[in-house]
Amino acid sequence: MTPNHLYFIYLQLANSSLSEEAVLGFEYGMSIDDPKSLIIWEAQFGDFFNGAQIMIDTYIASGELKWLLQSDLVMLLPHGMDGAGPEHSSCKIERFLQVISNDQGHLCRRSRFVKLLLQSDLVMLLPHGMDGAGPEHLSCKIERFLQSLCPFPAGEIQQEVTKYPNATDFLWSQEEHRNMGAWTFVSPRFNNLVGCKLQYVGRDHLGSPATGIGEVHRQESIQIIEDTFS
């Protein structure tokens, strides 16, 4: 074999930094460059997107309005207050609800649908997964799935609420703390668009997404269920 037939292949191995910002920025660029492809970015835990917040604020949430660059990027953010601690519980859904307009994006909680529950003159709205053992006098429970929080399904909710003309009290029960989750988004919309004033049931205000003490988390979860069905 002559030297002209020799081929050298260079393989370079390098450790890349654990950077959500870099990876999400790359995926956003791919979605712009190849709009016919389905580009999906999934966080191991929903709150890991924290390291990529600048990409969301500067490009994903506002790129179309600023530069007419439309992106079909799909972000999958696992979310659940399951006692795993502050850094593994919340995808901070409240941030996304604050930065997107009603006709700009779609935010779906397909793993935690919202339910309508009926108890004589009481309608309660609960995130899916919180319908644990309630009091025995709950004689009727009706489930209606609201697959999307944004655009806000005001018409669908109004249609359901009018089926129960005797309902006078409406509760919104959520796992997240009061200054987090969907509460600050749905409360004014229920009041202004649906004509229902919601009462809040859930964890109180907190600077951290969740407690780091397992027993405290368990007691909080029990209290939410008791307050919801009391």
TrEMBL record:
InterPro entries: 2oxoglutarate_DH_E1, KGD_C_sf, ODO-1/KGD_C, THDP-binding, Transketolase-like_Pyr-bd. Residues 13-102 form the Transketolase-like pyrimidine-binding domain. It is an enzyme of class 1 (oxidoreductase). Residues 147-229 form the 2-oxoglutarate dehydrogenase E1 component/KDG C-terminal domain. One of its GO terms (molecular function) is oxoglutarate dehydrogenase (succinyl-transferring) activity. Its cofactor is thiamine diphosphate. Its EC number is 1.2.4.2. Keywords: Oxidoreductase, Thiamine pyrophosphate. PANTHER family: 2-OXOADIPATE DEHYDROGENASE COMPLEX COMPONENT E1, 2-OXOGLUTARATE DEHYDROGENASE. Belongs to the alpha-ketoglutarate dehydrogenase family. This is DHKTD1. The lineage of its organism: Eukaryota, Metazoa, Spiralia, Lophotrochozoa, Mollusca.
